[in-house]
Amino acid sequence: MTTTPTTEQVQDALATVKDPEIKQPITDLGMVKAVDIGEDGQVTVEVWLTVAGCPMKDTITREVTAAVSALDGVTGVSVGLDVMSEEQRKELQASLRGGQPAREIPFARPDSLTKVYAIASGKGGVGKSSVTVNLAVELGRQGLKVGVVDADVYGHSVPAMLGVADQRPTQVEDMIMPVPVLGIRVISVGMLKPKREQVVAWRGPMLDRALVQMLSDVYWGDLDVLLLDLPPGTGDVAISVGQHLVNSEVLVVTTPQEAAAEVAERAGTIASMMHQRVAGVIENMSFLACPHCGPEHRLEVFGSGGGRRVAQTLTQRFGYDVPVLAEVPLDLALREGGDSGRPLVLRDEPSAAAEALREVATGLVSKGRGLAGMQLGLSPVGR
Fold first, then answer.
1. Are residues 61 and 112 located together in one domain of the fold?
2. Which residues pair with 229 in a beta bridge?
3. Which residues sit opposite 218 in a β-bridge?
4. Angle between the 332-340 and 352-367 helix axes, to the nearest 10 degrees?
5. How many CA atoms lie within 13 A of 315 on its CB side?
6. Angular region, 15: left φ>0, alpha ψ -120 to 50, beta rest
7. Cα separations (Å) of 106 from 18, 124, 207?
8. Of 129, 140, 148, 333, which shows the fewest CB atoms inside 10 Å?
9. Where are any strands of DSSP class E within 55-136?
10. Contact 243, 167 (CB under 8 A)
C-alpha cells in the first residue's frame, strides 16, 4: 500500500528547487508559504513570489511541480502563487546581504521630492534616447535640477548625444560624481567602462547591480527631476526600475506604425505590473512636413495613429487617463543634434519637433515637486 509523503519529505523536495534569479533554494529564501497534503496524495504548495508579475513564475511553478511529483505517493501537484509584502522583501534582502548595510537609493525614500520618469519603448529605433536627452536639457533650461541615468546598458547612447562620450566620472572615496553637461548631470555605463569601444555583455543580476550602483553610489545632490533612459522591451532593467523606484512614472515612446504601437503597449503594461503609473505616450517620427507645401501638408512616412492607439489601449487597460503628450515630427536637425552632441532644443532656429518636446517638458514641470500624499513622519502632540 502506497502512503502519502510527509511534510518533511515535501520540504526536502522543495529544497532542490532554486529561485531562477537568486540561485538559492526557495526553502532557504522563505518562499514556501504553505504545504498541504491530501489523503488522496494530492499536494498543494503555495509559493511567495518576490514581486507581482515575476517573469520567472512559470519556471518556478514547473520546477516545484516536477520536484514534488517525483515523490512516492503523490497523485497530483497544485502550485499557488502569492506576492511577498514589502516587509518580507526587506527581510529577504537583509538575509542575502548577510547583515551588511544596504546601499540607499535616495530617490526611493518616502520623503524624496524628486520626480522620477523612466523613458520606455517596446522596441528599439523609435528615438527614445533622443527624446530623453532633449527633455532633460529642456527641463534644465527651464530652471530645474535634472539628472539622467542612461540605463540602456547595452545600447548606451546618451553620452554621445550630449557630447561627453569620452568623459569619465570623478570618484571621491566611494562616491561617483555624475558628469555635468549642458546644465544637467549624467551617468552611464558607457562612462564607467575602461574603454569606449568595450562591449557590455551582462545578464540579469549584473544589470540590476549596475542600475543600483548608478542610483545609489552616484552623488546626485538635490534633483527636481531624474530621467532614466531604459533599454527597449520588458526585460531585466525595466523590472529592476519598478522594484527599486516604486514612485517612478513611465513615459512610453512609440512611432506611428502598427508594429511599433503593439509592442509599445507591452512596455506600458509591464510598468503597470510593477505598480508604476504611465504618465503618457510620446509619438516620435509622427510625420514629415512636406518640403514643398509646408507644415500643413503632412507626409505620414510611417503611417498614423500609433500613439493614439497605445494611449487608448493603456487608458482602457489601467482605468485612468493615459494621454498622448506629443506627436514629434521627423526633423533632420533632431538627428544632427544627436550626432553632434548638441540637442535640438538648444537651437535657435524654429523647429516643430523642438517645440513639441518643449511642450512635453513644460507639462512635466507643471507637475512640480510637492508633499501631497507623502508620509512626513509627524506625530500629533497633545496640548
1. no
2. 119, 150
3. 176
4. 70
5. 12
6. alpha
7. 32, 30, 19
8. 333
9. 76-83, 115-121
10. no
Q: What is the pLDDT of residues 302-316, one digit of tens each?
A: 778 888 999 999 999
Nearest to 105 by CA among 247, 257, 283, 249: 247
Q: What is the pLDDT of residues 320-362, one digit of tens each?
A: 999 999 999 988 888 888 888 899 999 888 888 999 999 999 9
Total domain count, the chain: 2
- What CATH number is associated with residue 251? 3.40.50.300
The pLDDT score that the predictor gives to residue 306 is 85
The H or E element that residue 269 is part of is helix 258-273
Asked if residue 81 is part of any domain, the answer here is yes
Is 379 a member of any domain? no
Q: Report the distance separating Cα 128 and Cα 125, nearest Å.
A: 8
Q: Which grid cell is 42?
A: 494530492
Length of the chain: 383
| Residue for grid cell 529605433 | 125
Segments forming the whole domain that contains residue 78: 8-97
The pTM score is 0.68
SS3 at position 37:
strand
Q: Of 270, 262, 346, 248, which is closest to residue 312 (Cα–Cα)? A: 262
Rg (CA), the chain: 24
Beta pairing, strands 76-83 & 249-254: unpaired
The residue assigned the cell 521627423 is: 330
Residue with cell 548595510: 101
Q: What b/e readout covers 358-382, taking b as 16+ CB neighbours within 10 angstroms?
A: bebbeebbeeeeeeeeeeeeeeeee
